[in-house]
Amino acid sequence: MPGKRRLLIIDSSDSTRAILFKEISFKAPELDIIACASGREAMIAARRFQFEVITTGINLPDTDGYQLIEEIRRTPKNKDAAIFVVSGDTDTRITGTDLGDNKAVTAYIDKAEGHKSLVTFILDYLGSQNELPVKILYVDKSATSTAITTTILQKNGVEYIHFKEATEALEFLKKDIKDNGSCSMDVMITDLTLSGNMHGFELIQAIRNDLALDYLALPVLLMTIEPGEDERTDFTGIFGAGTNDFITKPVDESDLLARLQTLVNIKRQSEALNP
What we know:
By secondary structure, the protein is of the alpha/beta class. It has helices at residues 14-27, 39-48, 65-73, 115-131, 143-155, 166-180, 200-209, 235-240, 253-273; strands at 6-10, 32-36, 53-56, 82-87, 107-110, 135-139, 159-163, 187-191, 220-225, 245-249.
C-alpha cells in the first residue's frame, strides 16, 4: 500500500534507541522512525500518527508496558498496528490473546538475542508486507462510484476484482476458498446498494455466516452515502451485519487508502499469529 511507512520504537535506554534508529534507518531509509523513551511520549506519537510496526519494552520509567499496549490499542490510528514486545520475561497475561482484545501482541522478541535480531525481525516483517500483493474484492453497481474507486486503486497499484452483484462476489469467494484452501483476498469493499436480489448487508452476512469468513479472514469496508441533516448513520445495521469499517461517498483518496491499509494490517496480523 502507498503512503508514509512509520515505525515507533519505545525503549527507556538511550543507547538502545540510538542503535536501533541508526541501523534501521541505514537499512530502510524510506521508513519514518520515531523513538520514544517513555509511555507519555509514545502515546503522543500514537495519537498523532499511524504506525505499521510498534516495538516496546515492558519496563518503562512512567508506565507499565502492559498498560501502554492497552492504551495504544484504544487509539483510532493504531488499534490494529503490529506490536512487538521486546522483553527477557514474557508475561502470559498477554500471550495468545485475540486481535480484538486491546492487549493483543503480534510477536515477542527475546531481549537476550540482542538488537541485531530485533532489527532483522522488524525488517523481515515489513518486507513481507511489501512482497505480499494487496488484493481487493470490490462490489458496486454504481458506474460513477466504480469509476472513482477503481481509478484510486489503479493509481496506487492496488490489485482488485470488481463485481456488480452480490451473488457473483459470493461465487467468486467460494471458488477462491476451494482453490486456495482459504480466502486469498485481503479486503472486500462493498456498496450498500447492489444489483440483483441482495444488498450490501446481506452480502456481508452471507460471507460471515455461510462462508465462515470472520473479521480477520476477510475484513470488510462498507461504502455508504453521507446521511442528510435529518438522518443518522445506521451504526447498528453497519456493524451488526459484520462490517469492520465504513466510508462515505464520494470517496476521498487518502481516507480510502488509510482505511484499506488498516484493514490489510488486520489480515496480515491474523496470518502472522495463525500461520
